[in-house]
């Protein structure tokens, strides 16, 4: 398992050293929080939400940050492929599953760090979390989102040769995933046909799990959210490892 740790450490170090990436990735979440949260907090009434609309969307914005960071961790596969690092790694006497697992855990770690940064900033802006155990629950759901969508990004990147093509496909896929997740609106308020699509979206269960952890409220049973998201995570790791084993260099 040394190769898993080595690749994980490499991913984390690259993230920490890239100050522009770290700061730049905070832009969209903070923009949504400030514009939608403060802008609509006095307009949108959220029954049963003591912290109003700004409290409702914060778990969704945290989920968005984790989602985007984890999915685009897959671009590292294409980068390594183009610069020869992946070839050197693949010819080493280690399994491709371990290499893929290291990439997945590394991408998930950076995604969770990104989510925690947004969470800490939101605390300074007035968000109140329910309790410490709830904070741990939120981290667990962030981790599952990070693992699932990093593996998803690696699966797509394993079949791609061009970084621009990967970015276009990911943008085409992840915006609907985020938009249908109930991050910015209550699921129960949606038309039935849209609600059905929302319940097919795996991110929905991550958003509701984080919302339950931080605010103590959720529109989906937390046990159901955990079960569905865990199953999706396992599925993505299996699919990602299969496609990564088929990668050509």
From TrEMBL:
Cellular-component GO terms for this entry: ATP-binding cassette (ABC) transporter complex
Residue stretches making up the ABC transmembrane type-2 domain: 20-247
Keyword Transmembrane appears in the UniProt entry: yes
UniProt keyword terms in alphabetical order: Membrane, Transmembrane, Transmembrane helix
One Gene Ontology molecular-function label: ABC-type transporter activity
TM region(s), chain numbering: 21-40, 52-79, 100-126, 132-156, 168-187, 223-244
Coiled coil spans: none
Bilayer topology annotation: Multi-pass membrane protein
Cell compartment(s), UniProt: Membrane
Keyword Secreted: no
Top-level lineage group: Archaea
Matches recorded under NCBIfam families: drrB (TIGR01247)
Family annotation (PANTHER family): NODULATION PROTEIN J
Designated name of the protein: Daunorubicin resistance ABC transporter membrane protein
